Amino acid sequence: MRSFASDNYAPAHPEVLAALSAINQGHQRAYGADEVTAQLEQRFMELFGPNTKTFLVWNGTGANVLALYSLLKPWEAVICTKWSHINVDEGGAPERIIGAKLIDLPAVDAKLSPAQIAEAFIRTGDEHYAQPRIVSITQSTEYGTLYSVDEIAAIADVTHKNNAYLHLDGARIGNAAVALNKSFKEFTTDVGVDVVSFGGTKNGLINGEAVLYLNPLLGEKVKHLRKSLMQLNSKMRYTSVQLLTLLSNDLWKRSASHANQMAQLLANQVSKLPGIKITQPVQVNAVFATVPQSVSDNVPNEFPFYVWNEHTNEVRWMCAWDTTEQDVTDFVAAIKRAL
Amino acid sequence: MRSFASDNYAPAHPEVLAALSAINQGHQRAYGADEVTAQLEQRFMELFGPNTKTFLVWNGTGANVLALYSLLKPWEAVICTKWSHINVDEGGAPERIIGAKLIDLPAVDAKLSPAQIAEAFIRTGDEHYAQPRIVSITQSTEYGTLYSVDEIAAIADVTHKNNAYLHLDGARIGNAAVALNKSFKEFTTDVGVDVVSFGGTKNGLINGEAVLYLNPLLGEKVKHLRKSLMQLNSKMRYTSVQLLTLLSNDLWKRSASHANQMAQLLANQVSKLPGIKITQPVQVNAVFATVPQSVSDNVPNEFPFYVWNEHTNEVRWMCAWDTTEQDVTDFVAAIKRAL
Amino acid sequence: MRSFASDNYAPAHPEVLAALSAINQGHQRAYGADEVTAQLEQRFMELFGPNTKTFLVWNGTGANVLALYSLLKPWEAVICTKWSHINVDEGGAPERIIGAKLIDLPAVDAKLSPAQIAEAFIRTGDEHYAQPRIVSITQSTEYGTLYSVDEIAAIADVTHKNNAYLHLDGARIGNAAVALNKSFKEFTTDVGVDVVSFGGTKNGLINGEAVLYLNPLLGEKVKHLRKSLMQLNSKMRYTSVQLLTLLSNDLWKRSASHANQMAQLLANQVSKLPGIKITQPVQVNAVFATVPQSVSDNVPNEFPFYVWNEHTNEVRWMCAWDTTEQDVTDFVAAIKRAL
Amino acid sequence: MRSFASDNYAPAHPEVLAALSAINQGHQRAYGADEVTAQLEQRFMELFGPNTKTFLVWNGTGANVLALYSLLKPWEAVICTKWSHINVDEGGAPERIIGAKLIDLPAVDAKLSPAQIAEAFIRTGDEHYAQPRIVSITQSTEYGTLYSVDEIAAIADVTHKNNAYLHLDGARIGNAAVALNKSFKEFTTDVGVDVVSFGGTKNGLINGEAVLYLNPLLGEKVKHLRKSLMQLNSKMRYTSVQLLTLLSNDLWKRSASHANQMAQLLANQVSKLPGIKITQPVQVNAVFATVPQSVSDNVPNEFPFYVWNEHTNEVRWMCAWDTTEQDVTDFVAAIKRAL
User: Would you call D50 exposed, middle or buried from its count of C-beta atoms within 10 A (0-12, 13-18, 19+)?
Assistant: First the structure.
């Protein structure tokens, strides 16, 4: 099957499988006390700065929930966009597990503005109002858009002025980094991001997500919380080696660049088709478009993809590390047939 | 002190105090197995219909949380307005205690429309999306407005068509009933409301709130949930007698009518003042208005009230069962001095 | 009705009702910003020491849950006895609301020993084990027994040595104080108790419970947590005045002494009856005994009481502030008839 | 490194790695809608009966929490042993995530008896007591012991008579099956187990755990709960293929039998050593023993293992699918040197 449904429909990169096999011998301490995990922690310190504290978890929802939970008091809230993955795609896990309110702000391109954030810090000290304590942004966003480095810096600034923390959901952080042509550190640690959900799964791993505390004052005792949130992996070396492989030899960069390029190619081709309107800037590996009903009814049988908005028939087409030019050509042909 | 801050700044009605003293003798079974509570349950059946199941709780937040919790599966969500008390005035209790997501929709007058509700039932069966299962409306609303009987019927209709329940937060249900000139039953049970948070505290009790299940299929085993939510009152007779008194001899009606009239009087008088703009229809016992900074800075020293919106300087003036015409006159005079 | 079921079957003391009526005039700020609550906070500082921070809540379960929640990290646990109210009589509220584990230790007289506590601090730093952080004792205990001042001091010592906090559930703290013939402060603040659930309801109030932080390092921001736990009382003056009345003119002492004396009288009389075996030292206002089935089957129709242990037919007889010598005489007569 | 610490220190079986590589091509639907997961669901129906509903999760804690959560009302409790993994080795996750009370009963060999269970169903319908609704047993147990088929049948009987469900934590279910010489179905579905946590990780997988609903009335809508508990695996085919491989060609049986045999070998050899006392019957792949301090101080440097009881210096030695006779010989030699 070929698809444009999600980067998690794609297989794992062959280098990742090879690395799994390579470490599959002998005993290693469980629960993250193994040698591979130690190497990975070191690698994250190289990439995000020497104060980085790393906690591997099972999946992106686990990463976001652990990151947010660890920074919140029971009466505090999270500012995010209406479109954020934590708000609409995690089955209510943040509310269920943390018990925290999400204050979801409107955002046409899934990006928060500093002014919007500043306005959301209201009723400080009023016990009747859940107190905003975290601002959570997604990079690249759920709409395939990007925050510039300056935009993140400005958000960090208003966040910190309001005595809050800045969380970055990096489920597709690799796609963002190559699109920005910046190192991870330049758009996170260096501009004031406090904690990152670092995602590898969507960039060619079987599974591999981590919470990275960049603010040196944060991240104490998180291992206890991770366990009580069911996010502790016993044979952690097998996840660690995947992330280590991704972060070695530029695998992450090669894969993410390719996926982004395929999205550009797809956008160029579909933008010429009648009845299809691209709705968001194509900045990473996703193309969002409104399409005629015939397209969303018929094409997914051949190439699965998701309808993003039931009311407007907006769809999402996602490219992966393994999407080929031929895939794009075939997909566009299928769309044409459906039109 | 006199105030226009909230109907909970007011004292209890003398008839309530008298009733408390009258029952203060002898032993009674604790935790609601007493005779007074039995009488109250009977009274609620008279007022809301013979299938009504009554559960007393401590306060309005407790009523809302118990009502919602009892109807939700762990992955389900509540549709409400952005202005709803459950969303912005309960310290995040619904999320913290229930673990449920609130889907808060925009509403200029704090009222949901059926069309809005219909649009919010999306992604049915999609495990990534918290599934809407309750629609919660407030009557009278947080903005002092009213749903008509027909509006509630239409909301119940769209709610039930989507396999959901309709909750009515009646913290000020008495004020609503007298304004509509309807019995409680006519705008709840008769038009499809499934569960009500019935409030007495704001209408002249010391404390007295109840969850009323009107839908005969609901309300089983709620006593267990109430206890585990810390909402079980041991000496319940003392709360029951307050509500029983409120619901006898039209006390609720006398008190609510008076408070509503005082709000009309206040609205009439302030509407003539320069710089003061009434922002919502005055339908019950609240007046909302935008005012010059000098008013919100100075008047509360003499007559406390709340600023409702920090950004627009909208304020709320609330009348109570004990607000007098003289109070209104004095308050308006204070506003004039501040202008 | 007369009963030996619970001190919460009894009415409120007339002085309490009189105090309620006395303050029932004029407006007061809601949610604890009123003058009566300020006076009560002052009174608690006199009784428990100048660092005492007071937070009124609705009921005993609310007090215990708030006290424990405010001191625990999400992965921490509470050491208590198997018989503790938090463990077996709060409908699972501590687990449900806090999400914390209770480590319930065996205790024949419902009292923990320092040695037992010391042994329970195991696996420190092991994320697989919920980390004990609070020791919770009840004074007087659920079995009507008492910790001596020295015993509490020794428990506080072992608790603090293990980097934990000592909580005292004082649902019947008045009965304990008069039995010990000590001031509240002498067996709490002075010997290292960090936080107290102070109960008034069972000693002749309608309702009145408070969490008292005695350790000056604790108790910050608790008002937010209280609200999000649905324990914030809007018209707080009415609860505050009850506690203030209880703590004035030795009302608490008069009532508790009397209840304790009635339990002694009852114990003396029943201890002579055949087939009835008193199972616990009678130190406050409760008598525990194993009785023939005929007693637990028949007597409660006339004088309600609870079976404490279904397997051994152990029953609990509780005296209240209003129990009379005649009540005891009549009750013993009823028992004799049933034997 | 070689160890006797845990079967999760061992690597994955080579057949598992080969299977991962074999399916690593092409796109597959995410979140369990793939072909491999469908095959696995079919396989579990063959092994546990045609009504089996399968839900893959990330780890054993996730399996236990999902299984328990899905069967409990908010005020219900779980009966288990003091030694159960859910009680002492999951960082308090069941309480934190479910909010449920664990009623932990004493059990010298980590096994519950039917009589003990029957006695634990007390106070039915009493809202003050968290109502027992699940009995959870572990097979093989945390102490390396086994329930016979008849024992499980008797437990199921008393459980169902009390209107409760029987959960079996099968983190080492393969070791149990080969030790009993029974099919999975014979000691679960056939004797009334309602739900199983099926573990593959400890029997030679990288990761692979599943919740199996055997009772045909259970398991509806669990996919929603799984997602909201952060237990939904996006690229599920990679976990499914591991379990499918384990359950094909008797891999599970070969691996578990070998591990069990190595434990027997180890037990035979250490039982002759002075100062070492085996404390539990060696029925599967674990040996429990009290040892001199010199053993627990020194041997783990060479062969890691866990101290099970800090107070008695009882240790646990666990054999894995890859433990060799040479490992046993070397380990016993190390113990002798330490003695």
Answer: exposed
Q: Which of residues 101-140 of D touch B (CB under 8 A)?
A: 127-128, 130-131
Answer positive or negative: Cα dihedral of C24, C28, C30, C33.
Answer: negative
CB distance D5 to A234 below 8 Å: no
Q: Please report the pLDDT score of residue D310 as a whole number.
A: 86
**What is the C-alpha to C-alpha distance for residues B86 and A247, in angstroms, rounded to an integer?**
45
* DSSP class of A318: E
Per-residue pLDDT tens for C169-195? 999 999 999 999 999 999 999 999 999
> pLDDT tens, C198-219?
999 999 999 999 999 999 999 9
DSSP state of B127: T
Starting from the edge strand earliest in sequence, which strands make up the sheet with C314-318, in order?
C277-278, C286-290, C314-318, C306-309
B42's tokens: 């009977």
Q: Which residues pair with B264 in a beta bridge?
A: none
Q: Which residue has the tokens 């000496």?
A: B235
Classified as helix, coil or strand, D121 is coil
Question: Cis ω on the peptide bond leading into residue C140 (within 30° of 0)?
Answer: yes
Cα B137–Cα B142–Cα B143 angle in degrees, nearest 5: 115
> Do the Cβ atoms of A189 and A216 come closer than 8 Å?
no
Tokens of A168: 């970055």
- How far is Cα B42 from Cα D270, in angstroms, rounded to an integer? 73
Cβ proximity of C4 and C324 under 8 Å: no
In chain C, what are the domains?
Answer: 13-246 (3.40.640.10), 251-338 (3.90.1150.10)
In tens, the pLDDT along C40-61 reads 999 999 999 999 999 999 999 9
Whether residue C45 lies within 8 A of chain A, CB to CB, comes out as no
pLDDT band at D30 (very low <50, low <70, confident <90, very high): very high
Strand-pairing partners, residue D115, are: none
Give the predicted TM-score (pTM) of the model: 0.97
Round to whole Å and give the CA distance between D338 and D315: 15
Substitution target in C230, C235, C326 with the highest count of B β-carbons within 10 Å is C230
Contacts across the C-D interface (CB distance below 8 Å)? 65
Q: How far apart are CA B198 and CA B180, in angstroms?
A: 17
Is C97 in contact with D99 (Cβ distance < 8 A)? yes
Interface residue C6 vs chain B (CB under 8 A): yes
* D228–B128 CB contact, under 8 Å: no
Using an 8 Å Cβ cutoff, are C93 and B229 in contact? Answer: yes
Look up residue A57 and give its two tokens. Answer: 């978890």
In this prediction, does ipTM exceed 0.90?
A: yes
Q: Can the peptide bond before residue A234 be classed as cis, meaning omega within 30 degrees of 0?
A: no
What are the backbone dihedrals phi and psi of residue C239, each rounded to the nearest 5 degrees, phi first?
A: -85, -40
The DSSP line for A323-339 is --HHHHHHHHHHHHHH-
